[in-house]
Structures are given as structure tokens and as C-alpha cells.
Write a structure and sequence with these properties.
The chain is an alpha/beta fold. The chain is 48% helix and 8% strand.
Length: 498
């Protein structure tokens, strides 16, 4: 019996986060939204991860407005976001009331599927978010952060999936953020999960190691229900496997997706032109990076390491840092290298190498990790290193968020009249140092991208060449029209296309 493989496309979130430092603006997404909505994707991943922070910090955008506009422009396809459990869309644990407020507003704004993960696979850090999403009537996709270590194997991952299913998950995602999954290992893991779980299984991987398309194929053969891909012009390297390749690969099989390659190709042409506008944000990692296989470092972490070393005039120490990362990771109890643990491990490894003495300088985030403030590591922490980092202080053993006082009343009081809505308060509770100057600019009317973006999108939508391939306004010309519209806005509006 045919069982079509469902596709989640990541072009609106993970693809540009991986390739373009999360710089794609909403104005680049709106003109193609209607075409994306017609494809028949299982879902579109378009929010969460680093997009919330980056929208305010770099693009002069309100992330809540992006959600509102894309929901309006994509009425038929499910919208999906990446939620970092108790970290929400940030890099630390937030109080339960902040987690709840965020999820309620995100659900109200149009998110259908919440992909919830924890960097340490500590279920305690996921449970609160899962309960709120379930209460709001949305889809809980509980997520396993895949990694390789002496304490991680298929049995531990399947057991974790069963635990998440018992907590009310609607589906399970295998999240391979570094591209470590190998094709036959994928087949074995998916097969094991399908035997012991009745929930749908979704598979997420990155092309960093060059194996992503083969991984998705073996996952499909093992019965995985949904896979993550990215439209071809925003695929490969540290992004996902190309959507069109997977669709073509499975044609005339019992897993055929049924998606229209011609429509996908037209969308790819659009994003191919859009990508040129963000060229200076390219990660600089070209092709396959085999270092991920040896050192298990995700592509985004690699680019951060290069940046840190460049700032220290120590780019020649790159390989030393790569070799130091696995040592630090082992000492920290083999955390999966995903936000925020990848930053914690990578920063400490860099300091160890550049300063010439291991743990001579220890950032507060690293101390908090050893204190247990990020959760329970997968394996015991090296006691010698722990004593060096936090002395005789005893790590906590409770759920980290249990130690946090409510955050929303404090945020509401500090923001005062600057808050236009509850969403502004949430933004401030998550990123006070970013949200306050952003909201101050908004209050002066400097950045009102939502009005002009919606107007320009409506005007240009019918004229783009992606609509029928001929007779329309060339994409490059249309994008230039966006820039002309941006120039009519008050000074300071960035639009992400400068």
C-alpha cells in the first residue's frame, strides 16, 4: 500500500539560519508565501530558533508581526516552529510563566506544530512546554537531539522517545543538528522506533557531512512519516537536503510525495535571486565539511569558532580548538552539541586553547552548566574539572526552572508604558537588552515594516515571474521595487536587504 512521504520545508527558518546567519527578512518571504502554500507541504518551518532574537537585533522587525503576516499569507499549510523547551527561543532557562505566555501567544498567532527539544535531552526541561502546547490544542512534536557518544545509542534514543510519548507527544522528531546520522544507522533507529511507537516519526538532518539525502532515503525506506528538506537554492552545505531531489528520488515508488516539481523549481528560482541579496552573510563553509564527522561539531558552531578565533587573531589555532572540543564535551558529560550547549562547549574549548591553560578563564554560562542550571547532563561530569570550575559548590539536582521566580510581572513593571501589548512584554522578558531599544525605536515610529511590507507584497505578488515563468516582472526587478519602497520609509528601517 502506498504511503506518501510528507515533507516539511525549512526555507523560512532553518535554511537561512544555517546559511545566511538568520538574516532573511519578512519582506523576502511574503511575495512567495502564496506559492509555498499551494505546494502541499506537511508544514513550513518558519519561526523559532534564532529567528526571534535576530528579527529584533538585526532586521528591525517585530517577530510577532512576521508570524502574523505569514499566517495571513499562508492560510492552508501548517506553520511550525522550533522551541528550545525551557529556553524558549533564548539561551538560558526562563520561568514557567514566561514559557506559558510565549506559547499561548504563539499558538494564538498561528503556530500549529511546536517542535520542542532540550539541549541535554533532559525531559524535565521539555515537560512544561509540552503541557502548555497540548492545553492550547496544538501539535506537540517532542524532539530527540541526536548525537554520538559512549552513553548514546539507539536503545537510549528509543527509550527517550517512549518517555516523551507517555508525556503526551503527538509525534516524535529525530533532530540531527550536526549531520552525524549515517544512512544505515538511520534505518536501524527509525525501524526500532516504528516497532515500539505508534506515533508519527519525523526526521531532521543537515547536509554538513554530505550524507543528508541518503539519510532521508534510508529513513523513508524504514517508514519514517515526515522529513525536513529545504528548497534547492537554499539547501546543501549546513542546511538541509534539497526538497526537489527528495521528491524526484521517490517518484514512482510507494513513498512518492506527490509534490509538483515544476512548482518547486519556480520557488527555487525565486529564492535563488533572493539569496544573492544576503551574500555577505553566507557562512563561508562551502561543500562538505568532514570535520563534523571527526569532531561532531555542527556547521553553525564551526562558523562561530572561526569568528571567535578571528577576533583573537588566532585563526591559526583552528585545528587545536577542534581537537579540544571533544575533550571539553567529555568532561561536561557528553551534551549534544546544539544551542545552547554547543556555544557553552565551543567557547570554553576556544578559551582553553587561546589562553594556553585549560579552564584558566571560565565564563559564567560554563559555571552555570556545572552548577546544573541547564539540566542533567547525559553522563556524569568530570569531578576534577567540576571542582576547578565551581569549587566545593554542590550542583542542583532539581529542575532548573523550579528555582526561578516568575518573570512576567517583573518584565511588565520594567517595560512600563513602552509595552504596546502582552507580546512586547514577552519579547522583553526573553531579551531585555535587545527588546528595549527595539521597542523604543518602534515607539518613535522609526520601524513600521508591517504596514509597508503588507502593502508592497499585495502589489507585487501577482507580477512575480515565479507565478507562471513568463510575462511577469523579473524577480531582480521586483526585489529592487522592495528596496525603492524601503527608501520611502523613515531612516533606520533596514528591511534585511541592504
Amino acid at each position: 500500500m502506498a504511503k506518501p512521504l510528507a515533507i516539511t520545508d525549512t526555507v523560512l527558518r532553518d535554511a537561512h539560519q544555517s546559511l545566511l546567519a538568520t538574516r532573511m527578512g519578512t519582506e523576502a518571504m511574503l511575495p512567495i508565501a502564496a506559492e509555498l502554500d499551494k505546494v502541499g507541504f506537511h508544514s513550513l518551518e518558519m519561526w523559532g530558533g534564532a529567528t526571534f532574537d535576530s528579527a529584533m537585533r538585526f532586521l528591525g522587525e517585530d517577530p510577532w508581526e512576521r508570524l502574523r503576516m505569514l499566517r495571513h499569507a499562508i492560510p492552508h499549510t501548517k506553520l511550525q516552529m522550533l522551541l528550545r523547551g525551557q529556553n524558549v527561543v533564548g539561551y538560558k532557562h526562563y520561568p514557567d510563566d514566561v514559557v506559558e505566555a510565549f506559547i499561548v501567544e504563539a499558538a494564538r498567532g498561528g503556530i500549529d506544530i511546536f517542535r520542542i527539544f532540550d539541549a541535554l535531552n533532559d525531559v524535565r526541561n521539555m515537560q512544561m512546554a509540552m503541557e502548555i502546547v497540548k492545553r492550547e490544542g496544538k501539535h506537540v512534536q517532542a524532539t530527540i537531539s541526536y548525537t554520538l557518544s559512549p552513553v548514546h545509542n539507539n536503545e537510549t534514543f528509543v527509550a527517550l522517545a517512549e518517555q516523551l510519548a507517555d508525556l503526551g507527544a503527538d509525534s516524535i522528531c529525530i533532530k540531527d543538528m550536526a549531520g552525524l546520522l549515517k544512512p544505515y544507522a538511520t534505518y536501524e533507529l527509525v525501524s526500532a522506533m516504528k516497532k515500539r511507537l505508534s506515533l508519527p516519526i519525523q526526521l531532521h538532518t543537515h547536509y554538513t557531512s554530505g550524507m543528508a539525502s541518503m539519510v532521508l532515503l534510508k529513513g523513508a525506506e524504514a517508514g519514517v512519516d515526515v522529513v525536513d528538506t529545504a528548497i534547492s537554492s537554499m539547501a546543501l552545505m549546513t542546511s538541509q537536503a534539497p526538497t526537489e531531489s527528495i521528491v524526484s528520488m521517490l517518484q514512482e515508488t510507494d513513498r512518492a510525495t506527490g509534490l509538483d516539481l515544476a512548482r518547486l523549481a519556480a520557488i527555487a528560482r525565486y529564492f535563488g535571486e533572493i539569496r544573492k541579496r544576503y551574500r555577505r552573510f553566507e557562512s563561508g563553509i562551502a561543500g562538505v565539511d568532514v570535520n563534523v564527522l571527526e569532531f561532531q561539531i555542527p556547521g553553525g558552531m564551526l562558523s562561530n569558532l572561526v569568528s571567535q578565533l578571528r577576533e583573537q587573531n588566532a585563526e591559526d589555532r583552528y585545528m587545536e580548538v577542534l581537537e579540544e572540543v571533544p575533550r571539553v564535551r567529555k568532561e561536561m558529560g557528553y551534551p549534544p552539541l546544539v544551542t545552547p550547549s554547543s556555544q557553552i562547549v565551543g567557547t570554553q574549548a576556544t578559551l582553553n586553547v587561546v589562553l594556553g591553560e585549560r579552564y584558566k578563564v571560565v565564563p559564567e554560562e560554563v559555571r552555570n552548566y556545572f552548577r546544573g542550571y541547564y539540566g542533567r547532563p547525559p553522563a556524569p561530569i568530570d569531578e576534577t574539572i567540576r571542582r576547578k570550575v565551581i569549587g566545593d559548590e554542590q550542583p542542583i539536582d532539581c529542575r532548573p526552572a523550579d528555582m526561578l521566580p516568575p518573570g512576567m510581572p517583573k518584565a511588565r513593571a520594567e517595560l512600563g508604558d513602552l509595552a504596546r501589548s502582552e507580546r512586547d512584554v514577552i519579547s522583553y522578558a526573553l531579551f531585555p537588552q535587545v527588546a528595549r531599544p527595539f521597542l523604543e525605536r518602534m515607539s518613535r515610529g522609526v520601524e513600521r515594516m508591517e504596514v509597508i511590507a503588507a502593502a508592497v507584497a499585495a502589489k507585487l505578488l501577482k507580477n512575480y515571474e515565479y507565478a507562471n515563468g513568463n510575462g511577469g516582472t523579473p524577480v531582480a526587478t521586483a526585489v529592487s521595487s522592495w528596496k525603492l519602497a524601503a527608501r520611502r520609509e523613515p531612516a533606520g528601517t533596514t528591511w534585511g536587504l541592504e
